[in-house]
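Recap slide: Peptidase M23, sequence and predicted structure.
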Amino acid sequence: MNKAIALLASLLPAAAWAHPGHHGIGLFHHLNDLLPIVAVVILVAGIMIWKKRH
C-alpha cells in the first residue's frame, strides 16, 4: 500500500507536501523564488529570436 501512495504522490505533484519549513504544497512551492529568473530568461530568449528574424 505504501508503494501505491508513493506512486500517486510522484504522479500528482500537488498531492505531495513541501519539505518542512515551507507552507506550499507540491513540487512547485519554490515557483515564487524562481519566477523572476524564469521571466528574464524568457524575455532574453524572445528578444534574441525577434532580432534573429528581423
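Residues 2 and 13 are 17 Å apart (CA to CA).
The first helix runs from residue 2 to 11.
(End of recap.)
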